[in-house]
């Protein structure tokens, strides 16, 4: 589907009264009040005997952003007196509701769609689109199988499973205090959405009148639904948490701030476009959100939702800017997109452009072109990560990762993924941990020297990793898999040089 270029004339910020937008905890498939069949497969399953003991509740105390934090670097060392299991690392594979064999290289829909298209479709409708969150000895995951999971980080045993709504869960669970926050929304359009877009593109959007979209708040202990905030457009992106609030972007071009305690709205700003998988990020008094179709990176005031500036990447195409989450550090926001489609030797190609903006003013600091390559399914880009003044980002167009200076954009090195597969590789953000860079893409995990880009080692897991960054806690790496698994791998298996005693 092709979209014509649209110019945004204005953005409207609306303050909303809490009573006008009151939310309930009743949803069409509410497992808490399912009196007809308490043994329904969608009823909340709670196995308290599998929860970690007090001394095993290690790791981050909260998870506030997609990919762990505003820098997208999900590496978390533990104390030297932490339990031996987390320092040495554990290995397990937890099968989710629709687990597809990890050693099967063929996605479910390959015979119908062809392998190039079937790979991303399986990520979008079958397994884990993003990675996992780890808080105090528990691994939390959202899956497109419509369930959210809490799994013991040491044993891989299920603590609870919850399906609060009949929709795909494509985000990275936020965990703050006693609550877990999920985002619900699929990549679907219906015919009415398409027709509305052709007539009123700023009012149209993804997910409207298709399923039940929004944010769902669960009890962290047992997975029971506490409240929900419904949205008309899909809520595929992971929210960002700050100042006792959740910041949300949706498929119908809206950005919200809601109370994290009860889900009541504080403000709503309409900018137009589609959020796709681009998750908001909060830095100081700003929230940064990227939209596609009507492409743009927006900086909003967190107090009132006013748009402070809009940044653009010339040539951004289709859903490109809305499929990549912006990253921020040291007063600089970095964003990338697929761009500039062109036929070369009779085949469709495109480029990946990376651009840095001043976080306060929106001034363009630098732009880097990662090169041209074959058109990839669904116009997907790679998620950037920042560590110690360097930006690390992948491009599925060229199946490469690059390291760039945060302040100048100068490229330090380019690394080519050895086995990118027919759909390309390089969507997930890398993780910097103990002087090594870890990348999960395709069916494999790689250890890369962060200064030179030299590959140290690779480890085969199987299945496929979508927009997945490795979450590392102590000596264990945790991942979500498009084949509908949660994987735990010792870091030393991916990097033989890793020393658990020094971490």
Description:
This protein is mainly β and 503 residues long. The chain has one domain (45-494): YVTN repeat-like/Quinoprotein amine dehydrogenase (Methylamine Dehydrogenase, Chain H, 7 Propeller). 7% of the residues lie in helices and 39% in strands. It has 5 helices and 34 strands. The protein has helices spanning 84-88, 110-113, 115-125, 191-199, 491-494, and strands at residues 12-15, 45-46, 75-76, 92-95, 133-135, 138-142, 148-152, 158-162, 174-176, 179-184, 213-219, 225-231, 240-242, 245-249, 254-259, 265-270, 281-283, 286-291, 296-301, 307-311, 327-329, 332-344, 347-358, 364-374, 385-387, 390-395, 400-405, 411-416, 431-433, 436-448, 455-465, 471-473, 476-481, 485-490. Strands 1-16-15-14-13 form a 5-stranded antiparallel beta sheet, with no helix packed on it. The chain has a 5-stranded antiparallel beta sheet with strand order 2-8-7-6-5, with no helix packed on it.
Could you say which overall geometry the principal axes of the C-alpha atoms support? globular
> What is the level 1 CATH name?
Mainly Beta
Q: Strand arrangement, largest sheet?
A: 1-16-15-14-13
Number of strands: 34
Give the end-to-end Cα distance, rounded to a whole number of Å.
48 Å
Tell me the count of domains: 1
* Averaged pLDDT: 90
In what range is the share of β-strand residues? 35-45%
In the predicted model, the low-confidence regions spanning at least 5 consecutive residues are 1-25
Rg over CA atoms:
21 Å
Largest sheet: 5 strands, antiparallel
**Helix count, per DSSP?**
5
Write out the CATH superfamily name.
YVTN repeat-like/Quinoprotein amine dehydrogenase
CATH topology: Methylamine Dehydrogenase, Chain H
GO molecular function, one term: hydrolase activity
Keywords: Hydrolase, Signal
Signal peptide: 1-22
Protein name: Tetrathionate hydrolase
């Amino acid at each position: 589907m092709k979209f014509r270029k649209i110019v945004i004339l204005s953005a409207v910020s609306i303050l909303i009264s809490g009573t006008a937008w009151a939310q309930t905890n009743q949803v069409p498939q509410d497992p808490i009040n399912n009196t007809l069949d308490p043994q329904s497969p969608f009823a909340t399953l709670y196995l308290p005997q599998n929860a970690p003991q007090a001394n095993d509740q290690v790791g981050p105390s909260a998870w506030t952003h997609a990919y762990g934090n505003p820098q997208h670097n999900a590496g978390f060392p533990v104390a030297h007196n932490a339990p031996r299991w987390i320092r040495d690392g554990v290995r397990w594979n937890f099968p989710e509701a629709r687990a597809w064999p990890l050693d099967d290289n063929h996605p479910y829909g390959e015979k119908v769609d062809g392998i190039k298209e079937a790979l991303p479709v399986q990520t979008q409708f079958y397994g884990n689109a993003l990675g996992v969150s780890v808080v105090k000895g528990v691994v939390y995951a959202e899956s497109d199988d419509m369930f959210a999971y809490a799994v013991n980080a040491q044993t891989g045993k299920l603590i609870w499973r919850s399906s609060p709504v009949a929709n795909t869960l494509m985000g990275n669970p936020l965990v703050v205090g006693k609550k877990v926050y999920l985002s619900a929304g699929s990549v679907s359009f219906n015919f009415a959405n398409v027709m509305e877009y052709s007539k009123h593109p700023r009012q149209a959007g993804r997910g409207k009148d298709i399923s039940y979209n929004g944010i769902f708040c669960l009890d962290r202990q047992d997975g029971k639904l506490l409240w929900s905030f419904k949205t008309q457009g899909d809520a595929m992106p992971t929210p960002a948490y700050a100042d006792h609030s959740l910041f949300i972007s949706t498929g119908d071009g809206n950005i919200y701030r809601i109370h994290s305690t009860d889900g009541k709205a504080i403000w709503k700003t309409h900018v137009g476009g589609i959020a796709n998988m681009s998750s908001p990020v909060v830095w100081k008094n700003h929230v940064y959100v990227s939209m596609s179709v009507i492409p743009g990176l927006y900086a909003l005031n967190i107090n009132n939702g006013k748009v402070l500036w809009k940044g653009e990447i010339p040539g951004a195409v289709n859903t490109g800017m809305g499929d990549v989450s912006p990253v921020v550090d040291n007063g600089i926001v970095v964003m990338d997109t697929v761009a500039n489609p062109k036929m070369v030797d009779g085949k469709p190609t495109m480029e990946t452009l990376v651009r840095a903006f001043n976080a306060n003013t929106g001034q363009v600091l630098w732009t880097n072109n990662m090169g041209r390559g074959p058109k990839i399914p669904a116009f997907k880009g790679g998620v950037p990560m920042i560590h110690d003044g360097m930006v690390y980002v992948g491009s599925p167009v060229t199946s490469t990762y690059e390291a760039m200076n945060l302040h100048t954009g100068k490229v330090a090195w380019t690394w080519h993924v050895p086995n990118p597969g027919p759909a390309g590789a390089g969507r997930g953000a890398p993780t910097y941990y103990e002087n090594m860079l870890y990348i999960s893409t395709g069916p494999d995990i790689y250890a890369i020297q962060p200064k030179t880009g030299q590959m140290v080692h690779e480890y085969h897991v199987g299945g496929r990793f979508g927009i997945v960054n490795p979450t590392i806690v102590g000596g264990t790496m945790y991942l979500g898999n498009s084949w509908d698994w949660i994987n735990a791998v010792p870091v030393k298996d991916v990097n033989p040089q890793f020393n658990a005693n020094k971490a």
